C-alpha cells in the first residue's frame, strides 16, 4: 500500500441552493435543489502558517467563499456552466495560494429512481474548467431485476442497487445522462440474469458506448436481499470504452 502525499486543502461542504441548470428529472427546465462542495487544493504546506499561529487571517476565509457561492445567480445553461462559475469564484477569492479547485455539484432530483447525481471537476490554476475532464456519478439507482440462480429468485424480481461512475474525456461535451439511465433501465426491464457479474458487465457496456465523450465507466451493483446476515452481495467492474 502506497503512503499518502502531503496535501493542504480547505473545503466548504454541501452549500444548498436552488437553481435552474436545465431539465429536471421530468424533462422540465425549472429550478431544482443544488448541493455544492468546493475543495481548495492549496500550495504545499500553506496551512502550516495558520496551524502554528492559530490565526484565521493566515488561512483561507471560507466564510467569504460560502457567501459568494450562496449569492450566485439562479439560472445556467447546464450544470457545467454552474461548475465554471463556482470555480472562478473560488480562484478569485482564494488568490495565488490555490493550485487547483475541485467542485462537486449534487443534483438529487436529476435522475428518476436514483438517490443522487453528481458532477465533479478538478481545475488547475490557469485552466478553463469547461474543458476539464469530469467525473459523473449516478448514485443508488434502484432497479427491479429478475436475477439469481436459486429457484425463488427465478420467480420474482428483486431490488438491485447500482452506482455508476462515468469518466468523461477532457473537452466541452454534452452528454445526456438521464437518457443513458433511461436506456439502461429499459434494457434491464426485459432481461433476466443468473449472476451479478453478467448484469454489471451489461451496464458497463451500455454506459461506455452511450457517448464518444465517455472514456471509462465504473459500475457497482448490490443485491440487498441476497444474504440473511449481510447487508448485501455485490460486484464492481471498471472498463475503458475501447474494451468494447
From TrEMBL:
The reaction(s) catalysed by this protein are: 7,8-dihydroneopterin = 6-hydroxymethyl-7,8-dihydropterin + glycolaldehyde
Keyword list (alphabetical) reads: Folate biosynthesis, Lyase
Pathway given in the UniProt record: Cofactor biosynthesis; tetrahydrofolate biosynthesis; 2-amino-4-hydroxy-6-hydroxymethyl-7,8-dihydropteridine diphosphate from 7,8-dihydroneopterin triphosphate: step 3/4
Q: Which residues form the Dihydroneopterin aldolase/epimerase domain?
A: 10-123, 136-239
Q: Report one GO cellular component.
A: cytoplasm
Q: Name one GO molecular function term.
A: dihydroneopterin aldolase activity
Which superkingdom is the protein from? Answer: Eukaryota
Which BP terms does GO give this entry? folic acid biosynthetic process
EC number, as in UniProt:
4.1.2.25
The UniProt entry, under SUPFAM superfamilies, shows:
Tetrahydrobiopterin biosynthesis enzymes-like
PANTHER family named in the record: DIHYDRONEOPTERIN ALDOLASE 1-RELATED
Family, as annotated: Belongs to the DHNA family.
Designated name of the protein: dihydroneopterin aldolase
Amino acid at each position: 500500500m502506497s503512503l499518502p502525499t502531503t496535501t493542504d486543502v480547505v473545503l466548504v461542504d454541501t452549500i444548498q441552493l436552488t437553481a435552474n441548470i436545465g431539465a429536471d428529472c421530468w424533462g422540465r427546465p425549472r429550478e431544482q435543489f443544488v448541493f455544492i462542495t468546493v475543495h481548495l487544493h492549496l500550495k504545499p504546506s500553506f496551512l502550516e502558517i495558520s496551524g502554528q499561529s492559530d490565526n484565521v487571517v493566515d488561512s483561507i476565509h471560507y466564510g467569504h467563499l460560502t457567501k459568494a457561492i450562496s449569492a450566485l445567480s439562479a439560472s445556467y445553461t447546464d450544470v457545467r456552466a454552474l461548475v465554471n462559475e463556482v470555480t472562478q469564484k473560488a480562484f478569485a477569492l482564494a488568490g495565488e495560494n490555490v493550485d487547483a479547485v475541485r467542485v462537486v455539484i449534487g443534483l438529487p432530483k436529476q435522475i428518476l429512481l436514483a438517490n443522487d447525481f453528481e458532477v465533479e471537476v478538478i481545475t488547475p490554476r490557469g485552466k478553463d474548467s469547461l474543458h476539464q475532464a469530469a467525473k459523473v456519478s449516478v448514485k443508488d439507482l434502484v432497479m427491479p431485476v429478475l436475477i439469481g440462480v436459486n429457484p425463488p429468485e427465478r420467480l420474482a424480481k428483486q431490488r438491485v442497487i447500482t452506482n455508476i461512475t462515468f469518466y468523461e474525456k477532457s473537452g466541452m461535451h454534452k452528454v445526456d445522462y438521464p437518457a443513458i439511465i433511461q436506456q439502461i433501465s429499459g434494457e434491464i426491464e426485459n432481461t433476466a440474469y443468473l449472476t451479478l457479474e453478467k448484469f454489471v458487465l451489461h451496464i458497463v457496456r451500455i454506459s461506455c458506448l452511450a457517448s464518444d465523450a465517455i472514456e471509462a465507466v465504473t459500475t457497482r451493483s448490490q443485491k440487498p436481499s441476497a444474504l440473511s446476515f449481510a447487508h448485501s452481495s455485490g460486484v464492481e467492474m471498471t472498463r475503458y470504452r475501447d474494451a468494447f
